[in-house]
Amino acid sequence: MAFFAHPDDAEILCGGTLIRLAGLGWDVHIATATAGDCGSATLSRDAISDLRREEGRRAAALIGASYHCLEESDVDVAFDHASNRKAIDLFRRLAPSLVLTHPRFDYMLDHEQVHLLARSASFSYPIPNASALPLPAGAAIPHLYYTDPIEGRDPYSGLPVTPTTTIDVTGVIDRKAEMLALHASQREWLREHHGMDEYIEAMRRHGAFRGGLIGSEYAESFTQHRGHAFPEDDLLAGLLGSS
Questions:
Q1: 143: Cβ–Cβ under 8 A, 6 or more apart, which residues?
Q2: What are the structural domains, with CATH classification, of the chain?
Q3: Whole-prediction pTM value?
């Protein structure tokens, strides 16, 4: 399960890894806290939300994945009672064994708040009384990984983050770009603003940067959460290889 703040975050930050997991037969889900209601300078909140939900569904469907949204609002995502309930219930329905989400520190507070929601739901969803929904058989705390912050740098120190796991995505980089391109509302906005296809090019640049860590053309990096009660074996590396 990839749980992120906005439609297109998963595709940018871990789309290649999701493609590779789907190729191994994993049941992949992409979830967002919001539908991206602030993602347009011209459309209303409802109009851009409808558009971006559909973009999210289409991008997920491209790799046989499902899309889910908690229906929070852009720039208002908060770790509070209501959003925590939504996240735990979503995890209860999906019972993920592997979760990818935002890092603790990032350029946008929506991302940091989703990080907290993901940590909370990962730890809490297997607790019988944590949700009124039925407890799935075999429910357990999942392996939890954090993607790179945007540009791979801690926004407070400006220093590069050091990942625990780096996955080669060279063989699926074109499919990752295809997933990302389906978020056309965001691609076109940046294309007009920058005068180039910055949406795709920025993704490729960071992928090439991370590829340099393992001697591949493109890669995605993660930091595994190994806190108390969480699994400590590197599942991603075991499944997909890592250096």
A1: 97, 98, 99, 224, 230, 231, 233, 235, 236
A2: 2-228 (3.40.50.10320)
A3: 0.96
